[in-house]
Amino acid sequence: xxKRAIFALLCAATMCACFAACGETNPDSANTxxxxxxxxxxxxxxxxxxxxxxxxxxxxxxxxDKVTKAQWDAAFSDEGFAGCTVKMIDEQLTxxxxxxxxxxxxxxxxxxxxxxxxxxxxxxxGMLGHVVGTEITDYRTMPQAEGDPVWxxxxxxxxxxxxxxxxxxxxxxxxxxxxxxxxxxxxxxDETKHAYVYEGDTLVVTYSxxxxxxxxxxxxxxxxxxxxxxxxxxxxxxxxxxxxxxxxNYGKTKVTIPENAQPMPEE
Length: 267
Known about the structure:
There is one protein chain. Mean pLDDT is 77; it is low at 1-42 and 208-212. It contains 4 helices and 12 strands. The chain has helices at 2-15, 69-75, 78-81, 163-171, and strands at 85-89, 94-103, 107-118, 121-132, 135-141, 151-155, 188-190, 195-205, 216-226, 229-237, 242-248, 262-263. By secondary structure, it is mostly beta strands. It has one domain (63-255). The termini are close together. A hairpin with a 4-residue loop joins strand 7 and strand 8. Helix content is 13%, strand content 35%. It is globular and about 55 Å long.
């Protein structure tokens, strides 16, 4: 019961984190498993520039590539972010998430391997959802600073499966990006900033269908692409809150169902 409560509090704390202003900086490196993704751009012999992004990339001087509406929407999808590492910086904390997403014959697997500060040390938390049709199997680890993670698992009861729990437990969009898909027309390419820029008061987005978590009114935003991949996003909300997201290591986080997972403690 205590372990389940810790998981719930941890997720709630993450969802409630406020965003505050930060300058564009180079994110630190993050450990990921090596994958085998090999996305390319229109030249079949050229490697997509997004696959070359690393923790050492100078995101502040990066000149964004130009994309079409279809490429924009694809880049801001779960499949578009699949395999990447994202570093989020705000006033409250800096956290790094390795994001894995894999479609299967009857569903998908989705993984979030997070690193963030807790009690003056960096800790890791793993969260994985295995979805087959309408059946969901959850996997979780407890926060830990070092050592091999201990995974816990359970099949989610049908009573807990609805639109809200799917978004809350599996998608965790707030750990990856605001959902900017479908908002290509709201941005214009700024030749001075070498980025897509939005300024105004009409852009409203949400990365969760839960009413308590949205909608979000965007005051300004900056987006940069490398090839077909999102490289950098800066968001300012109308509440004068701000966050930066750095994306790199595309294709290097893969989803593997944990072996020998222990039953998740019941409440």
